[in-house]
Amino acid sequence: MPYQLPALPFAYDALEPHIDARTVEIHHDKHHQTYLNNLNKALEGTPELFNKAPEVLLKDLNALPEALRKTVRNQGGGFVNHNFYFECLGPKAGGEPTGDLAAAIQKAFGNFAAFKEKLTAASVGHFGSGWGWLSLDKSGQLTVHSTANQDSPLSEGLTPLLTCDVWEHAYYLKYQNLRANYVGAWWNVVKWDVVAARYAAARK
């Protein structure tokens, strides 16, 4: 069966005042839905691919028919990245991680403040549309990086743990051109328990 749009895991207004309800509604119900629709349409001629999770398709784009690779990279990446983004967020969140994830961040970056500064810089400083990421590399080390457009860390052999969407549709209604203000507010809605669970699962 074609892929389905996951329900938003919180109410449209649950992230206010940091991210406004109208932005969340349009972001999830319009932009996210459009990536999904385009991906499903592209795979209609090869329905056997629906038996694989879209994350699996992104991990090995070269295994796909050449005619599908660009579409899966862009539309599949958009679908997966947005799934990931919305799962990362929630009300009454923010703060700092604890446990193994906190220890790994301290080991990799020195302390949480240094990590926060680095991911903020990667997100705010990314030229054009894209994403800021905290990922785990193949050696099990944490890395902060950004990707352009809808490129996925999965296609680079990385395991994504946390992402900040810096496409304008993620923030422009409230923050206009002030991307840095949006990224600063985004930290207040990060669900660290979700990120920590991803980190634990990736290390098994």
Blueprint of the fold:
Elements: H1 21-42, H2 54-59, H3 66-88, H4 99-109, H5 112-124, E1 130-136, E2 142-148, E3 159-165, H6 172-175, H7 179-186, H8 192-202
Antiparallel strand pairs: 1-2, 1-3
Describe this entry's structure for a reader.
The chain has eight helices and three strands. It has 204 residues and is mainly α. A three-stranded antiparallel beta sheet has the order 2-1-3. It folds into two domains: 21-88, Fe,Mn superoxide dismutase (SOD) domain (Helix Hairpins), CATH 1.10.287.990; 99-202, 3-Layer(bab) Sandwich (minor pseudopilin epsh fold), CATH 3.55.40.20. The mean pLDDT is 97. Strand 1 (130-136) and strand 2 (142-148) form a beta hairpin.
Feature tags:
48% helix; 10% strand; Helix Hairpins; 3 strands; 2 domains; mainly alpha; 3-stranded antiparallel beta sheet; 8 helices; minor pseudopilin epsh fold; 204 residues
Short characterization:
This protein is mainly α.
Give the SSE order as H and E letters.
HHHHHEEEHHH
Name the strands of the widest sheet in spatial order.
2-1-3
Oligomer class: single chain
Full CATH superfamily name of the largest domain: Iron/manganese superoxide dismutase, C-terminal domain
CATH architecture of the largest domain: 3-Layer(bab) Sandwich
- Total beta strand runs: 3
Q: What general outline do the C-alpha atoms trace?
A: globular
Secondary structure category? mainly alpha
Helix segment tally: 8
Whole-number tally of structural domains: 2
- Biggest beta sheet attributes: 3 strands, antiparallel
How much is the average pLDDT? 97
Percent range of helical residues: 40-55%
Low-confidence stretches: none
CATH fold call of the largest domain: minor pseudopilin epsh fold
